[in-house]
Automatic annotation (TrEMBL):
It comes from Sylvietta virens (Green crombec). Coiled coil: none annotated. Gene3D superfamilies: MITD, C-terminal phospholipase D-like domain (3.30.870.30), Phosphotransferase system, lactose/cellobiose-type IIA subunit (1.20.58.80). Residues 2-54 form the MIT domain. Residues 75-221 form the MITD1 C-terminal phospholipase D-like domain. GO terms for cellular component: midbody. This is MITD1 protein.
Length: 228
């Protein structure tokens, strides 16, 4: 299965479908790594390791895609934005955003946005087991912030997902990383949706119908390696 996946990656690479080829390369390499761990035949281990090194070299190109979300644009729910990168091999996610700290700030729901992002991860198709959140303390509402985050943490544990929460007073950058090598930087972080016109207005529940603030999304692929 790993070899077939990598063959598909080579075909996509030749067709200049670089984003899809990177996903296939990574999935193929991970499948071959599982075989290396399972086999006890040293000769086979050596051959597989040689192939993995070869495929890792092929997939080591730099990738950068930029998406421009215009003011009041719709159709940019988290599911739509991230689905290409959340493959089945994704098991760990890192979220760095200094503003996951208030239920309500300037008419935007920051903790609710993080909760919705977590819901997307739970639904799959990825098999996320661990989410790492790095944010900053809300000095004006620390108790409310901690209560909300602990509730999200407990709720995630019911689905077999661990939420690790850390705080930094100097964090500025906003980025999301998946352990399959994809990194997404959004100018506004997870907070790019406008406040709905009312609780019973279109777009209140379905974020694909929610107008957005203008922002830029940069997608990168970083070389992701594991010990063989």
């Amino acid at each position: 299965a790993g070899a077939e996946t990598v063959k598909r990656a080579v075909q996509l690479d030749a067709a200049s479908r670089f984003q899809e080829s990177l996903v296939c390369y990574q999935e193929g390499i991970d499948l071959l790594l599982q075989v290396v761990k399972a086999t006890t035949d040293e000769a086979k281990k050596h051959r597989y390791r040689q192939k993995i090194s070869e495929f890792t070299f092929l997939s080591d190109g730099k990738y950068h895609k930029q998406i421009r979300i215009e003011e009041n644009a719709t159709g940019f729910s988290y599911e739509k934005l991230f689905h290409e990168y959340l493959t089945e091999i994704v098991s760990e996610v890192w979220v760095e955003d200094p503003y996951i700290r208030q239920v309500h700030q300037a008419s935007r729901y920051l903790l609710y946005n993080f909760l919705r992002f977590c819901e997307m991860l739970v639904k799959g198709p990825c098999k996320v087991k661990t989410i790492h959140l790095l944010t900053s303390y809300d000095e004006g509402g620390k108790n409310q912030q901690m209560t909300a985050l602990e509730e999200i943490k407990q709720s995630l544990s019911n689905y077999g997902v661990t939420l690790n929460i850390d705080f930094s007073s100097s964090i500025h950058d906003r980025e999301i990383r998946f352990n399959n090598g994809w990194m997404i930087k959004i100018g506004r972080g997870l907070d790019y949706f406008k406040k709905p016109q009312g609780r019973f207005s279109i777009g209140y529940c379905d974020f694909d119908l929610r107008p957005c603030y203008e922002t830029t999304v940069d997608v990168f692929h970083t070389k992701h390696t594991k010990k063989m």
